[in-house]
Amino acid sequence: xxxxxxxxxxxxxxxxxxxxxxxxxxxxxxxxxxxxxxxxxxxxxxxxxxxxxxxxxxxxxxxxxxxxxxxxxxxxxxxxxxxxxxxxxxxxxxxxxxxxxxxxxxxxxxxxxxxxxxxxxxxxxxxxxxxxxxxxxxxxxxxxxxxxxxxxxxxxxxxxxxxxxxxxxxxxxxxxxxxxxxxxxxxxxxxxxxxxxxxxxxxxxxxxxxxxxxxxxxxxxxxxxxxxxxxxxxxxxxxxxxxxxxxxxxxxxxxxxxxxxxxxxxxxxxxxxxxxxxxxx
Length: 281
Prior knowledge:
CATH superfamily: Alpha/Beta hydrolase fold, catalytic domain
Radius of gyration: 18 Å
Strand content: 15-25%
CATH architecture: 3-Layer(aba) Sandwich
Order of helices and strands: EEEHEHEHEHHHHHEHEHH
Oligomer: single chain
Structural class: alpha/beta
Helix content: 25-40%
Number of helices: 11
Strand order of the largest sheet: 1-2-4-3-5-6-7-8
Largest sheet: 8 strands, mixed
């Protein structure tokens, strides 16, 4: 939590969700931020700083990890219901929804189910909407160029269940550089925590892929949409292209030479793109 943010709580039948609001300028639109994972602690404070003054931001810890409820429905539909509960608790009408990674994928599901509640979408390097969303290519891309020792350690951790918090952190740290367009210049990994229950989220994500939920629903999503995707992201660029092709009011910006974390790899880039997007809508 930054010094200018204030905490809020969104009640649900399965416990409260806890988040933080930072005000923009008096005329700034509201923007709900959805962090990635699933099963990670909230990490979008650096994106809040990037967008300071441009929008009023609200971010929250997704279900499964304190300070939010650690129990309850962690399916895709459960997370969609949680996002609606947060919006209701804030009293916001048609906010912009900005999602990163899994959070961007969640934003698509939110729009598919409740586009009447949102004013627009900004999708930052998200899991896709077609086929398996890019999952099959994602894992190998994250291991490309790693040392034999690192690959062996990842395989050892993959074979172990359950992993401790320290082991989960180690696993992600081994892959972390390949989330960036230039792995040699990757910034330090944030101090992330890991939730329980993300297995249920992944099972639900895959079930929705099998049902082609987003492929069927996105052609009817007409809210203005900006998709930013790294040209060297481990999530295939083709997924972003197919996503935009499905949506009648979407535009794709390719972040050339960059990877999965656009505001960390080129500070100011996301803000500049959002300024243009807001001016055009």
